[in-house]
Design goal:
- The structure is a homodimer of 300-residue chains.
- By secondary structure, the first copy, chain A, is α/β, with parallel strands linked by helices.
- Helix content of chain A is 45%, strand content 21%.
- In chain A, strands 3, 4, 5, 6, 7, 8, 9 and 10 form an eight-stranded mixed β-sheet that branches. A two-stranded antiparallel sheet of chain A has the order 1-2.
- In chain A, helix 5 (105-119) links the parallel strand 3 and strand 4 (123-129).
- Chain A is rod-shaped.
- Chain A binds a DNA duplex (30 and 30 nucleotides) through helix 3.
Chain lengths: 300, 300
DNA sequence: GCCAGCCATAACTAAAAGTTATCACGCTCA
DNA sequence: TGAGCGTGATAACTTTTAGTTATGGCTGGC
């Protein structure tokens, strides 16, 4: 293998430039003999003489000149690498793979993407939208860097950063507007439309009603919050959606939304990442941006 | 300045490839702790973490991936540099600047260039044709690498490699054909046409006649052997030319050539280079090619 | 909760790179 | 031509760096 070092290449370059061992050594901040032996070693490891030494002049050999061209190219790239590291220091750079659960993604991402573009302009953002178990798996495998999910995830090797709590609201046919908000016990009696199995939001809703997730149901599950709301508008039943989805999903449907009485149902959304990931600091910054995007989404 | 070494980059590459300190260390033929500290040092000198270590996996950070791309690029060039040196080993490569005196150049170069092209295909040959003193000066300044001149040059820092001896022949009007060759003493009485001052060949010819170089003459000096031969053909006088020029120069002129009796006048042509030039061996090869080109030129 | 796998750290040794002192060579100049 | 100077190479030694083995500590799986 290549037996030379970057130092030797630097010394070589200096000597090629100065044409004088003493001066090149001074420029390299080492002693002249040190430079001499390094050059000699370099020549030896190349098996070729790089310089022609006469009494008054040190000159590159023709081979040395061809060599110098390539050496300069290499040193240039080495310096560029160094600059690159220095510029990236502490900052999040390059590809950033974020997973988001489906009951958050459509309402948060539009704002989040805009905000991240401003706060981290060099970021190459990749978004993955899928269910929590899959996100966790991909996180553990290193296929994504962080994920926005409902807490807790309770994976020992994942770190969880709580971002915000979001409440659920009841969505019912418009004709029910004015009626008081039902209590959990009453809700169990109503025809509650939910997302299909696998969505954590389904479990969270059922949990509020004190009903087990696995209970057999009537097969009217929807594949998205949007579908559920449309079904409510058609008078098929009622549903619950996260506050954040309210603005988007109920605008065009004939439905009425009402907050539950305390204790309101809800969930904590957080950012999770591998505890071993060294970019924790940067991820906390990202989390902060997510938090800002959420508050803008619910108030706006 | 960049504080890392090529070794560290190699270790980095190995670890990025294997994703496992133990395996990467083995592949790099060092111990695992040695690899660990080298990677740590590299990360420290970059000010950035390159790998994410979890209990079961070692993974590049996003920054590490960007870093790896550049590292591979650098290592590739480093290897290429090594290959380049190994390929050039011992051989003469790149630019080769050869000086030749004017009384040799036109007769030798056509064949020499062809032969060099065959024997040293990678050579980028530059030819300089001028008088000996200038060639010597340019040699000493490192503006040319070697020169073909008449020996001796007697510069202490130049090495002289004798190549061949060439005799001078007399060129006289065609009507003199059949006359015996004149002796040196007779030649002094004839109207001897010579090259203008500065040409070593002039001095060599005068030396044969035992006449000093500086003697005032009649102003009929020619600027090339070709001119001299044409003047002889016009009946203006006689001249001497090197054997090698005979074929080319007398073909189209109405002149007769005759060799002198022993001791024949002549000169030794040689290749000279700076004694400090490390490519002596390669130059001897070149000299051999010149020698072959000459013998082909005189016999052919 | 123990075991196995794996990386980090410590303590030490070997190798490499640097230092100062000195030599040897070749050019310049009296 | 021989003294002196400028310059690179070499020698002897020191410091720094890179490598070794031994060992510790964390983590995930059974």
């Amino acid at each position: 293998m290549a037996g030379f070092s970057i130092k030797q290449l630097r010394y070589f370059e200096a000597l090629a430039l100065h044409g004088h061992f003493g001066h090149a050594a001074e420029a390299s901040a080492i002693s002249q003999p040190a430079l001499s032996v390094q050059i000699k070693d370099l020549e030896q490891s190349m098996g070729m003489q790089l310089f022609e030494r006469s009494a008054r002049q040190v000159r590159l050999t023709p081979f040395g000149e061809a060599f110098a061209t390539r050496v300069r190219e290499i040193l240039h790239r080495v310096d560029a690498l160094d600059d690159f590291a220095r510029a990236a220091q502490g900052r999040l750079t390059g590809r950033f793979r974020l997973g988001v659960i489906p009951t958050i993604a459509p309402y948060l991402l539009p704002r989040l993407i805009g905000n991240l573009g401003k706060s981290h302009p060099r970021l190459d953002l990749h978004v993955r939208e899928t269910l929590t178990p899959r996100l966790v798996q991909e996180l553990l495998q290193g296929r994504i860097d962080t994920a926005i999910v409902a807490l807790p995830v309770s994976e020992p090797s994942l770190f969880e950063m709580p971002l915000f709590k979001e409440n659920f609201v009841l969505v019912r046919p418009e004709k029910d507007a004015g009626k008081p908000a039902p209590r959990a016990s009453e809700l169990r009696e109503m025809r509650l439309l939910l997302l299909e199995e696998g969505h954590c939001f389904r479990d969270q809703a059922l949990n509020f009603c004190n009903a087990p997730s696995a209970v057999p149901r009537d097969g009217l599950d929807g594949s998205s919050l949007s579908t559920l709301v449309q079904m409510v508008g058609a008078g098929i039943g009622v549903t619950m959606i996260p506050e954040m989805a309210m603005g988007v999903e109920t605008r065009s449907a004939q439905v009425n939304c009402v907050a539950f009485d305390d204790p309101q149902p809800g969930r904590t959304i957080g950012l999770v990442w591998r505890a071993s990931n060294p970019l924790a600091e940067a991820f906390e910054e990202i989390g902060e941006v997510v938090r800002q995007s959420e508050s803008a989404a619910t108030t706006g």
